[in-house]
Amino acid sequence: MDLWIIGNKLGLLVYIILSVSILPKTGTPWDILAYLIYLCVNVTIPIFRNDARIQQLLSACSAVLVVYFAYRLDTSFVLLLPVNLYELVLLWEGRRRIALAISLIPLVMIPREELPVYILSTFLSFLLYTGLRLQMERLKRVDEERETLRLEMQNLSHLLNKNQEYIRQSEYTIKLEERNRLSQQIHDEVGHAMAGALIQMEASRTLLAANPDKSAELLGNAISISKEGLERIRLTLKDMKPRSEELGIHRLRLFADELSAKHALKATVTHEGNLDVITPMQWRIIHENATEAVTNSLKYGHASAIEIEVRVLNRMIRSSVSDNGIGARKIVKGLGIVGMEERAASVGGTVIVDGAHGFRVTTLLPNDKSE
Amino acid sequence: MNVLEIRNLTKKFGDFIAVDNMNLSVREGEIFGFLGANGAGKSTTINMISSLLRITKGEISLLGKNIVKENKFAKLNIGIVPQDLAIYEEMSAYENVSFFAGLYGLRGNLLKERAAEALEFVGLGDKHKDLPKNFSGGMKRRLNIACAIAHRPKLIIMDEPTVGIDPQSRNYILNSVRKLNEMGSSIIYTSHYMEEVEELCTRIAIVDHGKIIAEGTKEQLKSIITDTKEIWIGVKNEERLDIDALQRISGVISVQPEEQTVKIVSRGEVGNLNWIIQQLIKDGVEIGSVEEQAPNLETVFLTLTGRKLRD
């Protein structure tokens, strides 16, 4: 930018020097002094790049000098005026057209023969500055965009990490819960049975010689208690499915109950298919999307009933939230919908929003049975 | 090699998003079906492929070349059969075809030859001098097709070519789609007639609200919903059912006798109806009715979107 301005000034200055010194009239030492002063002032401007005020001052100085020189020495100096004015405008972040207008004022004062050259110089400078300005603005915009994208990426990767952490955590939690449940059950059911059987057997040993009949009866009790215990062990092991699906659907039910209680509407949850295949991550997405969709329904839908449905299909999991409200003929994607889409996309799914009959948000997630 | 490759395609009309970040590829030699309700974004996508609409975001490439940058190449290699008839009623059938073939870049003898060929292909060879205003709806449709194929494009796009025509013309068109495919053109076929798509297409994409929600062969699409089929058999004397024997038939997953009927759930790909019926006859069961319920594309669409194709 600075280089462009210097180049512009230099070009004009050389033109003036040429027209003043080499053409018919010869330059006086005053002319040369004027060139040097002008050069000095204008070379100083870029040096103070860090202080806009000094730059403005110098630029204004230069403009005054130019006018003074034009008045005292040679009218050609006025050609340098527009550049200075643009520079000033640029430093003040003002409007280009104002500068153009100001730089056209001297038109009335300068001699006729200089007019075309002055106008040419003014408009050339105007063009140059406009171009430069636009370019700069574009650069700035691109820069800002890059920055926001970077931030967004950072956020996303942060989110990803969090989600991965969440998966790890919930797997761990499930294992822990399962272990607790197992040990509790073994203690409660199997442990008691075994202890009972042991007591009966010990009593039977004591009575073995004295009362064989009683002893046999006690032994029989012990056997039946042991059998029962064995059966309980079998049942406990058979019943060892993880309960994560219950957590998931329970949470949705709870959510629906809360909705019905707090607002004037009826919320229901239905499900179909084997909920076991839904991973904790998927449950989380289903739940978050349902919350978001319900918020939308409450805000805009004027609905009196909301239905949340989770269906496990062969290769997909479909969860939908539909209301009986006014719907929307034209759907404008807000942050909420984009958020739902992003969540679904993170596990390879999609979201369909339909406003034809009430509002319905359907989240489709892939069902990878291999996991 | 992919004939058509669509990447992150988006089309907005103001705030309304007609096509939403669509990704799709059509392989060489495919009849690719585009299934969706009215207003799902099928025609918008097709209009973008045929450069009738500007792309808001994303990229479409035909045979590896970007259709926006190499527009001429794209035009020469795509033939479009638009949804609304695009023929001149006051020009003869032959003139219509040669006019469109000329637009696609054919000249001279080649143009005459190909135009006559195309008319022959759609069965209008003997009507080449007649004016389309005297044609039936089906004949107009066929002429519309002839106009799109005279220049032998690599990719033919047919946007609802069977809307509002008689069954005979419809069969004719379906057969010619197959023939065109055999002759080496890849075809994109859109319709909301599920049966047509199911019968014709090698691969299908289900589109809703501008998004592709599922894609694959019809078997793959059906298996999204379920791998099983249900066979309902109405029986008069259910006490004679030998459930264990039925359960041993290959493919059978479960047998549930109910009042006057027995419901058999079986793996979808196994054809075991014969065996089941044989077993029932052997046991002396009197069969009243047999009904097999396997998912079709309509059910797939309904289950995934919660709507019917023709809502």
From TrEMBL, chain A:
Domain Signal transduction histidine kinase subgroup 3 dimerisation and phosphoacceptor: 178-244
Signal peptide positions on this chain: none
InterPro entries with a match to the protein in the record: HATPase_C_sf (IPR036890), Sensor_HK_TwoCompSys (IPR050482), Sig_transdc_His_kin_sub3_dim/P (IPR011712)
Enzyme Commission number, as recorded: 2.7.13.3
Coiled coil, from the record: 132-159
GO molecular function, one term: protein dimerization activity
Transmembrane segments: 6-23, 30-48, 54-71, 115-132
EC top class named in words: transferase
GO cellular component annotations of the record: membrane
Superkingdom of the organism of origin: Bacteria
Matching Pfam families: HisKA_3
Reactions that this protein is recorded to catalyse: ATP + protein L-histidine = ADP + protein N-phospho-L-histidine
Alphabetically ordered keywords of this record: ATP-binding, Coiled coil, Kinase, Membrane, Nucleotide-binding, Phosphoprotein, Transferase, Transmembrane, Transmembrane helix, Two-component regulatory system
Record's protein name: histidine kinase
Biological source species: Cohnella lubricantis
TrEMBL record, chain B:
GO molecular function terms listed in the Swiss-Prot or TrEMBL record: ATP binding; ATP hydrolysis activity
Any single Pfam family the record assigns to this protein: ABC_tran
Keyword set, alphabetical order: ATP-binding, Nucleotide-binding
Gene3D superfamilies in the cross-refs: P-loop containing nucleotide triphosphate hydrolases
Domain ABC transporter: 4-234
Keyword Hydrolase: no
Keyword Lyase: no
SMART domains per the UniProt record, alphabetical: AAA
Stated name of the protein: ABC transporter ATP-binding protein
Organism from which the protein derives: Cohnella lubricantis
